[in-house]
Amino acid sequence: AMPTGEPVTLHAFEPFSLEIQPVSMTNVGSERAEVAGRTVEGWRLEVDSEMLGPSTNWVDDEGLILGTRYTVGELVFEIVRVPAEDAVQFESGELPGSADAPDLIGGTAVRVDTAIPHPRQCRELTARVRGVDRRRLLIDDRRQHYGPVKETPDGGLVATLTVRAQGPPDERPALGSEPPGDVTVFLESTATIQADDPRFIAVAEEVVGHETDPWVAAWSIAEWVDATMTADLNEPLLRSALEVLEDPSGACRSYAALYCGVARAAGIPCRVAVGAVYAPEALGTSAFAFHAWNEVWVGEWVAIDATLAVPGYPQPADATHIKFTQGDVRAFAPAARVIRSLDLEVLDADTMGEAEEGAEAKQGEVVTR
Q: Strands 230-231 and 249-250: what pairing?
């Protein structure tokens, strides 16, 4: 029933965010196309999800998806509808292409021309950001600030960003003090951060003990997460904090989820931050990687990265952490829109001091997570 060539705005359930999201959809017309090695013939729909970005879809007369194609960074993903028996063959690796594992880290990397020395010690970064097409993704806060934002002819945005690694304030409220009204929501237990579960409460009591300084407690939790987790870049879809606690392995997003569950259980307001981090060790080249970390309220919001934690060296996340979304575990999904087309140009990076030998070695090890 959709007219041809006219964009229509619909609302659909988005499983990544567990929310109803607006979707722009245009019926281009009927056509035949090759998708994932198969020929599909149906109505071509150009879809732009507010959260995940654009994709091309082919549907049958009933509107059921026959095939989908979308890009993320250098990667092209294709999904095709097949009979159940073919799906079983695909899973077993018997169909062409089914055994190919894409390089998700390298394929979504944002390469830059300027190398940043000792990135884990970087305290200030200035970069030109291009390719983001939603102003809500250009977040201004205590640690990062955008200059004037301009729109490019293709509808993208360009602006100069300055990020400063901000440590905790000198005067901090005692752990358990009532935070400001707009911060209390980050103490709540949610469907994906089950902070009121007795298992999280028990961990928080064990790790934090009688500590009253929220920053000391926050760093103790980061060290616990670092010691508890096993890095696994090939984990499946997003998992809740409780799922990670039950199986403590995964990529950065699972480190961040687990950290958030323990921190909230300990009475520390906490949220997940998602964006990009400079990670040449993991990528083998000068580039930023898709990444998740945390922010804790200790009188001010302070970024803390359990994935890159160096035991014995309590410090905020370095200035190469560029944030585009924030919230709970579901904050990871909207950042996919950024990674599709992000372009970064490093203008200046201030590396303050030399990393001590022990910390440098540890950082080189954990950054590959």
A: parallel
